[in-house]
Amino acid sequence: MISRLLLTTLLTCSVALAACGGGSGGDSTTAVSATTTASALEKDAKGLDAGMAKDAVGAVGICGPLAQMRLLESTVRRFDAATERLQVSTLGFPDGAGRSLAAFTQRQRTESEDCDVYLAEDAAQVTALAADGGLYDLAPALKDWKAQAGSPAIAPVLVGDRAFGLPIRSGRASGVLVAAVHGRNAGGALEVIRELSGAQRTEAP
């Protein structure tokens, strides 16, 4: 699977920025679109709707490069203090040269439940994971989310009409947040992604 992901990244993941609205919040968005045609696995990706995030409870695991997980520690502590219904933990993978991606895809291959959310390094990694069928589609939830007032527009990573990741905008960490299909708490993953991407619901909670 890892070799396929690397091949997908190198051969098919030509990524371009496409501005789709203003940058001052509201429901304007700036999408990062993959120029590839969606694979069958991407087209069949299960969507997560916003209601799943509102009602989610339990533990949520965030995985990613060790350096980025360390940068997330204070953010996670604040999240846990403010959100009693969810308890977030982090799992750091080795840094550098695609090692974190390799560790994550290994867990996906064994259907490990360690990672509800994965912090990918960039949009190319997201499209590669989506092509392999490893991610939930966030597009249904985005219909009910918007950027916070005064914040940059929400910028999903798109493949066709599917949205597979959102850039992190909380704390000092960088990367793109995705929801892993083999995680144990899809609703919790969605709520964590909403919070860490700086999105808010368009309706009252």
What does this entry look like structurally?
This protein has 205 residues and is of the alpha/beta class. It has one domain (2-201): D-Maltodextrin-Binding Protein, domain 2 (3-Layer(aba) Sandwich). Helices cover 35% and strands 25% of the residues. The protein is built from nine helices and ten strands. The strands form two sheets. An eight-stranded mixed β-sheet has the order 1-2-7-8-9-5-3-4, with helices on both faces. The protein has a two-stranded antiparallel ribbon with strand order 6-10. Strand 7 and strand 8 form a beta hairpin. Helix 1 crosses helix 7. It is globular, with a radius of gyration of 16 Å. Mean pLDDT is 82; it is low at 1-29.
Q: What keywords describe this structure?
A:
alpha/beta, eight-stranded mixed beta sheet, 9 helices, 35% helix, disordered N terminus
Low-confidence regions: 1-29
What is Rg?
16 Å
In N-to-C order, the SSE pattern is HEEHHEHHEHEHHEEEEHE
Helix content: 25-40%
* Integer count of domains: 1
- The end-to-end span amounts to 40 Å
Mean of the pLDDT scores? Answer: 82
Question: CATH top level?
Answer: Alpha Beta
Biggest beta sheet attributes: 8 strands, mixed
Short précis:
The protein is an alpha/beta fold and 205 residues long.
Question: What's the structural blueprint in terms of helices and strands?
Answer:
Elements: H1 2-12, E1 15-20, E2 29-34, H2 40-43, H3 50-54, E3 58-65, H4 66-71, H5 73-82, E4 86-93, H6 99-109, E5 117-120, H7 123-131, H8 139-142, E6 145-147, E7 157-159, E8 162-167, E9 176-179, H9 186-196, E10 199-201
Parallel strand pairs: 2-7, 3-4, 3-5
Antiparallel strand pairs: 1-2, 5-9, 6-10, 7-8, 8-9
Helix pairs in contact: 1-7
